[in-house]
Amino acid sequence: MEELIMSENKQTVNVTVAGGYEPSVIKLKKGIPAEINFKRTNDQGCLDVVHSNELGFSEKLPINVTKTVQVPTDKSGEFGFSCGMDMFKGKVEVE
Q: Could you tell me which InterPro entries the record lists for this protein (predicted)?
């Protein structure tokens, strides 16, 4: 189940990275600043990086360290993110 933490001026989603992304689909509201906290909990190879050209981020994910990325919410749509080898994928839906 997706954990969206919403306040008046920010939305935050926590994603566990272990054999994929949980949740793999993130729904955000358009126009409210957003961030995603990625936390990798096992050492499966290509999940040590998460990146998205569409959303403009690339982060190394050390084990058991939370990495936060800012996500633009100025446009509606679906935007993909994936591991370093593009084997594991997720998406952000901005509505």
A: Cupredoxin, EfeO_Cupredoxin
